[in-house]
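User: two proteins, same treatment. go.

Assistant:
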Amino acid sequence: MARGGKAVLLGALVIIYIAVATHNPPSWFKSLGYNQVLDAYGKLTAHHAPLQWIFNPGLRSIPNQTSSAYALIPNEDNNHQQRIESALENDPLALIESSAVDAWHTTSKGQEALGLIRERAYRAVVFDGGHHLPTLGLEPDVLLIPVLRDTAVHSYMRDGMSVQVLQQLLEKINSPSVAVTVSRWLVVKRPSSLETLTERIIAGAGPREDDQDHGFEPCASPGMSWYNGYIMAYVSGTKQENPAVYAARIRTLNQEIKEVFVAFNYNNIDQHEAAQWACQVATHLGRPVTVVNRPVKVIDLLRGR
């Protein structure tokens, strides 16, 4: 294809991708070739998308580092355990996870699956908003962060998180995760894009200096995790949990608490109510509770919010 033709094709794909990335397209739209468009766009962009390293402690060593990454693309099948076990049969370099399976890892069954992954592969998470905050306590190896206007942001979940805040949080908890930002317009939740980007990050991260095995014992309950004395939590429901009950649930998870970081799904609560609720939890807990995200999604940032 001539250079002019490629430019026209790329321009058309960009327009289509931006249109669908600002909304959650219905199933009938996806059946009309939506995924094929994303695959084509991902192949064109993933090899050349600029990577910005915001935190790099290096990667732990794993037995197999020769095969390709494997993306657990969101689908209608919520049998996360089965999908993970099936993917691991092929000895992938890394498993790449999105929202649903990542959130599942804070459950008891999900935490057991983390051990299976850790023995065989790297775990990469597409961190596109505050709903992924609890994963920071579950020691993902790689955070692939789609960014628009310096914000990790989702297409329809209003829970964007500042890259600067995320970077500071990773430093504060002494995270073992390699974190890399990529333009929101150059990340596609399709295998052709996620696998290439993840393989590039792994190739460029380098080994961890202190690679001793300190053991892996995830500490989490649904919607929250604990790591190095810090709680990372996501509050999503339309009905907020009683602050005293929530504080007690945090205490049950772990008694050694320095600070709580919480992100909200602002589709279900406004910013003022979220701040008040967090203050009430802090009062009952006797520890600082810091809100780390804000009510934006892709379309909000495009409108200048």
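Protein 2:
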Amino acid sequence: MDKNSVITLEDGTNYELLEKISYQDINYFLAEKLLAEDKETGEYAILKEIKENNETYVEKEENEDILLTIIKILTTNFTNVINSLKPEELL
């Protein structure tokens, strides 16, 4: 699974994968829920990639400690990107 792709969970909900990070050898995605015709909702989730029996699927991460850790990592990554930008790149 790659960043910027759209996936469908088992419950039929579509998500766009916005950012991908690896934590403890597991891939996690910051994802935005989509409505029909890929319309953005402004609702976000952290999705966990699971690989079992030669198959790959994702599910919402529910563990609060892991969620907090992933959010901290994403915040640090975004802060580093923003701090590395030059003013002319923001225009």
